[in-house]
């Protein structure tokens, strides 16, 4: 079978159908380069040629660069530059053909695939949800290096092109048409080829690209126009503020996009190649490709899912109408899953459903929801105060207060309401699932389903396996999480599981820095520079010190009940010291008294409390570099412990969970990828240095590190 099917019709139109063998999608691999060069040579020698159509035999049109190949590249050198230039050269050759060229886009055309389309004179796409187009390279730590930056700026102008390049958005057909990325949308795949050939026949002279025509002007103004000059000045500042200088790709995209307007087209293409060559070997690109492409692909494709038939819940119930329970009910209703929301009083359940009303109203204001959609969504939520309303439910999730006695009582009384084959989930954030499971008649059907606040924005669920949880229950829980459009990560039972345990170290390290004499503002700044979404002191105020205090007390009580010393949070000594003291001073957090590490004003503004100096124990002379590393290393070391202890079941879930649930900096690719990216030996040396200077919490088990020395696998 050929990788490129070449067919010339009686009208002189050649249809080139790309069908790279041995793979599900067309990518820019070695076979592509050789085949594409051969196609261009044949087209150049063709007699009676009147036009060219590029089509695909795959479900997708073209997926772009071969990421496995890019991931293996270790250095930016002349060989890599030659490889990139050879990949993109056929696109420029297409633009020089003396006949019109059309892209017949039957499915996703992303990255290099859409760059091929940009080199065509006409882009026609089928009206199907999967037929998205765009340049998502920035999300992989790269830039569109096959002409995407240069051509998109020439096509749309700097103002319209930059957001698409910097956000990596994938546009559906109607959006792409409105944005000017495609010229025509046709109803079906069968309409693509006829539409392409008709256009060629009607436009025999439309073979010159706009940027190759004499007198070409950039849409929206050229490099000297005041509007473009203003964008050129402000864009780097905006990007720097957003990325904090931690992601090199967006800054390089802006630089190439702006300068492409100041030099010749072919020189700009060469500059773009150099930019891609510089980015490919970077730790940020490798982290993004490994985590955000291959990692997400592993989750979506079911590589870490238990084997078995797909399960779909027909009904659900949520116990507890507080913010978490109300958010979970929203998540269910938003995916048309009928859900009963139960609490002890009519007032509480009414208030819980009102949470969904508020979210729907905000969506309507943004234009992302209609009044009819809101009505349909709210109709999925039934409120009740009676257990009888739960009868015959496929899935029950308890989301009551984090009190083990209360949870055990609720579980015992409501578990029998499940339908045969139904499963029961607990939304606990730290309490052992295996212990809670003892309260239900069938522990094999009990599992942890840890949602994150706010549920409508945090699209990830930590699934916790108890000692007696069956694989069948895990499969059903996994499928349910995906059914409502959330990302599942699976962990084994332990105190604090994975996310709460690691997140606790982030918050605690902020307080250790406070005890070590670092200025509170400098602590928050260090977290910002590290790439954390919010500083640890601000996070404490949102979570509440009262909750931290109660969690400490709960686990001490649990230790006493079980007759063990769990060691949970053993290194979180700063939290243990400061939480009770702050609560005693009436500063439990933003939503618990309106004061904590910050003072909160009625207008919503805040400032750090002047009394935080009381918690200073020493002047350790902590540098900004040390503060940043302490924040990152503390979490990475705890994640490594979770992996070594068997709490984490796969490396991909560790990385995705640390980013999406905990907020670990995205540019690292996740907590374990941070260790790999730093270098295992370099990480060990720096951890030892931090341990010697600041304490045993930074001590790393050599055996745990050694387990990372083999290449990452999915699952790991």
Describe the structure.
Helices cover 48% and strands 13% of the residues. The strands form five sheets. The chain has an eight-stranded mixed beta sheet with strand order 14-13-12-15-16-17-18-19, sandwiched between helices. A six-stranded mixed beta sheet has the order 1-2-4-6-8-11, with helices on both faces. α12 runs antiparallel to α26, α14 packs antiparallel against α15 (371-379) and α20 (520-530) packs across α24. It contains 28 helices and 21 strands. The protein has 716 residues and is an alpha/beta fold.
CATH architecture of the largest domain: Alpha-Beta Complex
Helix content: 40-55%
**Name given to the CATH homologous superfamily of the largest domain:** 2-enoyl-CoA Hydratase, Chain A, domain 1
* End-to-end CA span: 36 Å
| Number of separate helices | 28
Report strand %: 5-15%
What is the C-alpha radius of gyration, as a whole number of Å?
28 Å
List key phrases describing it.
716 residues, alpha/beta, 2-enoyl-CoA Hydratase, Chain A, domain 1, Rossmann fold, N-(1-d-carboxylethyl)-l-norvaline Dehydrogenase, domain 2, eight-stranded mixed β-sheet, six-stranded mixed β-sheet, 21 strands, globular
Short description:
The protein has 716 residues and is an alpha/beta fold. The chain is built from 28 helices and 21 strands.
Topology:
Layout: E1 4-8, E2 13-18, E3 27-28, H1 30-45, E4 51-56, E5 64-65, H2 67-71, H3 78-95, E6 101-105, E7 109-110, H4 112-118, E8 122-126, E9 133-134, H5 148-156, H6 158-167, E10 170-171, H7 173-179, E11 184-186, H8 192-202, H9 226-243, H10 248-259, H11 265-279, H12 283-301, E12 316-319, H13 323-334, E13 339-342, H14 346-366, H15 371-379, E14 381-384, E15 393-398, H16 404-414, E16 418-426, H17 433-436, E17 446-450, E18 460-465, H18 471-483, E19 487-492, H19 499-515, H20 520-530, H21 536-543, H22 545-562, H23 573-584, E20 598-600, E21 606-608, H24 624-644, H25 651-662, H26 671-678, H27 680-694, H28 702-706
Helix pairs in contact: 1-3, 3-11, 5-6, 6-10, 9-10, 10-11, 12-25, 12-26, 13-14, 14-15, 19-21, 19-23, 19-24, 19-25, 20-24, 22-23, 24-26, 26-27
